[in-house]
Design goal:
It is a single chain. The protein has 10 helices and 8 strands. By secondary structure, it is of the alpha/beta class. It comes from Staphylococcus borealis.
Length: 233
């Protein structure tokens, strides 16, 4: 293995509650813009219950494309342009919470010393990632950052990894992805990567990480997984 790609929220840092606030605001804005007969039913369909997002719902772990499909079904029309623009606006104005999961930063430094290249692949915007890198003074810890902007590919679409494969001489089988949702794990499958490591430090439960090769409590254990993988090859 040569590259280790980490999801950000829920994997490197504690899951940012500001994302939940954005998700709820996005749905409420949708239903204000495109009223439906029963707002409570629409909330349940989209995964909002008691002013919180259900983790395994489309709002909890779905991609933006999946959210758009769900929104279209709820309001009965194509709201893809509105959704992309409104979502991006909410992301650009959010105030992030950037708190490392215990031991993860030191783990990354250890991987770098062992010769691995380290990257981030996140559904957050470039602005959000830069805020994270600045707040945590960790810009030098990563060799590549892949963020998601309006109309860009996102996980689990394998095209999200084009910035890696277009600019670095690395084969998919030599890339590991680490994340807290099954969309991260599906990215491994779709891009034919070498290994998918699921972590339980974010929003997904163990049974939801169905496409993971290995599941661990937090990313701190990634070096152990890589060692075992290397020994078993």
């Amino acid at each position: 293995m040569e590259w280790i790609l980490f999801d950000k929220d829920g994997t490197l840092i504690e899951f940012d509650k500001s994302w939940e606030k954005i998700g709820i605001r996005l749905v409420d804005s949708l239903l204000d813009e495109y009223p439906v007969a029963d707002k409570e039913v629409a909330h349940r369909q989209l995964g909002i219950l008691d002013d919180a997002i259900v983790p395994d719902s489309v709002m909890g772990s779905g991609s933006l494309d999946e959210m758009i499909k769900a929104f279209n079904n709820v309001v009965g029309k194509d709201v893809s342009t509105w959704t992309r623009n409104t979502s991006q606006s909410l992301v650009d104005t959010r105030v992030p919470e950037n708190n490392w999961i215990d031991g993860v930063y030191d783990m990354i430094q250890s991987l770098r010393k062992d010769g691995y290249k380290i990257g981030i692949v996140t559904s957050d915007s470039r602005k959000g990632v830069l805020q994270f890198l600045e707040d945590t003074n960790s810009k030098d810890a990563f060799d590549l950052v892949i963020s998601t902007e309006t109309h860009a590919a996102e996980k689990p679409n394998p095209a999200v990894l084009n910035p890696l494969f277009d600019h670095y001489d690395v084969k998919p089988k030599d890339v590991v992805i680490v994340g807290d949702t099954n969309n991260d794990m599906k990215t491994k499958v779709n891009a034919e990567l070498g290994l998918a490591i699921g972590v339980l430090s974010g929003i997904a439960k163990k049974e939801e990480l169905v496409d993971a090769d290995v599941i661990i409590d937090t990313a701190v254990s990634v070096p152990e997984v890589l060692k075992q993988y290397s020994e078993n090859k």
